[in-house]
From TrEMBL:
Organism: Archangium gephyra
Superkingdom of origin: Bacteria
Any matching Pfam family: SMI1_KNR4
InterPro entries, per the entry: Knr4/Smi1-like_dom, Knr4/Smi1-like_sf
Record-annotated Knr4/Smi1-like domain positions: 1-113
Name the UniProt record assigns to this protein: Knr4/Smi1-like domain-containing protein
C-alpha cells in the first residue's frame, strides 16, 4: 500500500488486531455505528479474512486515492484513514457499503477517545 499508519494505530492494532475494541460505539453524522473488528496488519493466511490488505482491495476501486481501511463494522462498512488532506495525521472516515464517505474524527487518537459503550456518548 505504501503508506505509514499512525503510530497510535499501529500500537493498538499490534495488540488487538482481529478483535473488537471496548467500548466500540461511535457517532457518525448520520447516527451511530459500532466497530466490529480491528483489521489485521500481520501477513498470516489464517487472518486473511480480517486483513487490511483484503479490505483495501475491496474498497480501492470505489474510493479516492489516499483512503485506507483499518476496521470494519457489523454492516460491512469500513472505518478508514483518509490521508488526502493531512497525510501526516489522517482523519478517520466511514466508508459505507454504497461507498459514501462520512467524516468520523480528526485523528485516530480522537476516534479512540470518542468510542463509548452505547448508553450515552462521552461528554
Amino acid at each position: 500500500m505504501g503508506i505509514a499508519f499512525p503510530k497510535a494505530y499501529k500500537e493498538v492494532a499490534t495488540q488487538y488486531q482481529g478483535m473488537t475494541p471496548h467500548p466500540a460505539v461511535f457517532n457518525v453524522g448520520r447516527g451511530t455505528n459500532v466497530v466490529n473488528v480491528l483489521l489485521t496488519i500481520i501477513e498470516d493466511p489464517q487472518w486473511r479474512t480480517y486483513s487490511v490488505m483484503r479490505a483495501y482491495d475491496a474498497v480501492k476501486p470505489h474510493v479516492p486515492n489516499g483512503v485506507y481501511p483499518f476496521a470494519s463494522t457489523p454492516g460491512g462498512e469500513y472505518l478508514c484513514f483518509d490521508y488526502r488532506g493531512t497525510p501526516e495525521q489522517p482523519k478517520v472516515t466511514l466508508v459505507t457499503v454504497e461507498m459514501f464517505i462520512y467524516p468520523v474524527a480528526d485523528s485516530f487518537n480522537d476516534f479512540m477517545a470518542r468510542l463509548y459503550d452505547g448508553d450515552a456518548p462521552p461528554a
